[in-house]
UniProtKB/TrEMBL annotation:
Residue ranges of every copy of the Alcohol dehydrogenase-like N-terminal domain listed in the record: 29-107
Keyword Protein biosynthesis: no
Lineage of the organism: Eukaryota, Metazoa, Chordata, Craniata, Vertebrata
A cellular component term, taken from the record's GO annotations: cytosol
Organism field: Sarcophilus harrisii
Protein known as: Alcohol dehydrogenase-like N-terminal domain-containing protein
Classification via Pfam families: ADH_N
Length: 111
């Protein structure tokens, strides 16, 4: 089921954010759809906002977030709807030595 929600959309560097209603498709296999409850803007986001880092616009910034799992795609077993989560901007395989380490967050498969 496609849902509609509000999002702060950045259409180009150094432009004001536009609050818009967007459609979010249901999660595909291996994906999770999260209802974001809070987010922040970090230095990476700021680089996209100011144009110091190339970005494909339009873009949603604020990858440092906290939310609740709204729905899951086929094959997802690590979370379920209603779980509180903190999404990461880096993919995680969940199996390599870095992912398995309690202080690791840089999956070796993303290099």
């Amino acid at each position: 089921l496609v849902i509609k929600c509000k999002a702060a959309v950045l259409w180009g560097p150094r432009q004001p954010f536009s609050i818009e209603e967007v459609e979010v498709a249901p999660p595909k296999a291996g994906e999770v759809r999260i209802k974001i409850m809070a987010t922040g803007i970090c230095h990476i986001d700021d680089h996209a906002i100011t144009g110091a880092m190339p970005a494909r616009f339009p873009v949603f910034v604020g990858h440092e977030a906290a939310g609740i799992v709204e729905s899951i795609g086929e094959g997802v077993t690590t979370v379920k709807p209603g779980d509180k989560v903190i999404p990461l901007c880096l993919p995680q395989c969940g199996k390599c030595s870095t992912c398995m380490h309690p202080k690791g967050n840089w999956c070796v498969k993303t290099e």
